[in-house]
């Protein structure tokens, strides 16, 4: 086969690094963008925040500052050394006089096993004594009362404070500390005591394993006696039983003043929780009567009592700040003239916009040293900083344009609420702004808008439409709101079925099948009619 030359014409789409970065920044959420900015500030010396002072370019000032910093470091080291010398006689690690503090391992990032250190005793290796925080009382005195009120206490913090008041041996205290740290956010133990005991190492030693299991069992009883009641349960059934038994103890303390009906309801509730939870979820009164041997009135009273229990004991101590949503766009009613969207002010949230600039000192120094070694690499870094700033600005400009288009098309929603939402798809906004649908999808993902009706993800304003008798269409969001309104107004003794809701929607001119109603109801996390029926 003879070699030959030929020409071929083809078209290829090539994304430049700048365009790739622009696309990636556009799809990032606010939190991810903040992390990206911090990383770029650390890696690129030509990038800085607005408001930060430029570094001194004079060598004399730099050397003077370095000398002052070195002197300050030496003085600090001498002060620290003298302080350690004075305090060395007041604290001796490993002595039996030191109180146990199971919060120390959590704050220092060391678990109970690692904090104990090396010792000949198996129990010291497993738990050990933890040194107390010498400066805890001083910090509490210096902390303002307002800051202490606003300090968030986790479930583990609350339990550790209660555990400090218990008189326990070293092994039981270490076991209790370990169980507290093993709880999930809801206050449950996800692993069995046998699995927790095996996690400490060699399970082939029967004596050591049985000792571990014994102390964990004792610690579990202590843990389940702490507040909130129900903490330390292994499953939902045990959690509810713990709460019911606590109420029974309170009634026993009252003695003869206890109403017989309340005692019977608690006894029945305890029997119901010990049976199948599926029957409890379905509120199958007849089968529960057969299993418990109680009459219908007692079972219904027990179900009403169980409904008031807390299935997640750790919920009151959840850190709600982690779920806080910071909006990217803020929409307010406005009477100003010449607004892009008449009647509404659509603005970017200044708190989420990073203010960046190119470092002038370094850029001028690079400009005055052209042709020097490494000039090309530094010039590339400078260009990357300029691209990054430009792409950040372009990202927020695109978000603002898309938000303004959304507010313009969903004006009735911002005035009247969800029932006035109109159907809208990504292509409508893409055609209006001259962008691709994928770009609109990236902009509306993980971006939020604060409105008079609440804070919503930009994707919330897009939805399919359902046909109406007039030939138009109704937004699926508006239909969901209408379904929720119908369910809020239903009779508790005779709740609406999905078929009945479909008929009511049909009467209002909205063509919605029963299966569609069930899908929308489940999306709103509303139980079926059988579970909404009053007892």
The percentage of residues in β strands lies in 5-15%
Read across the widest sheet, the strand sequence of neighbours is 3-2-5-6
**Terminal-residue CA separation:** 89 Å
- Summing up helix and strand content along with how strands pair, one would put the structural category as mainly alpha
Estimate percent helicity. Answer: 40-55%
- Count of helix runs: 26
Radius of gyration, CA atoms, in whole angstroms: 33 Å
Mean pLDDT over all positions: 78
Based on Cα principal axes, name the global outline. Answer: extended
Q: Report the major sheet.
A: 4 strands, mixed
Q: Got a strand count?
A: 8
Low-confidence stretches: 57-70, 72-149
Short description:
This protein is 54% helix and 6% strand.
Walkthrough of the structure:
The protein is mainly alpha-helical. Among the domains are: 236-312; 329-457, no CATH class; 465-532, Arc Repressor Mutant, subunit A. Helices cover 54% and strands 6% of the residues. It contains 26 helices and 8 strands. The chain has helices at residues 17-27, 30-43, 59-87, 104-108, 112-116, 122-126, 136-142, 145-150, 155-163, 170-181, 193-198, 206-224, 236-254, 260-274, 277-282, 285-292, 296-306, 360-367, 375-409, 411-416, 426-433, 437-444, 476-488, 498-507, 514-523, 529-532, and strands at residues 47-49, 329-333, 344-348, 356-358, 448-451, 454-457, 465-467, 473-475. The strands form 3 sheets. A 4-stranded mixed β-sheet has the order 3-2-5-6, with helices on one face. Strands 1-4 form a two-stranded antiparallel ribbon. Strands 7-8 form a two-stranded antiparallel sheet. A hairpin with a 5-residue loop joins strand 7 and strand 8. Helix 13 packs antiparallel against helix 14.
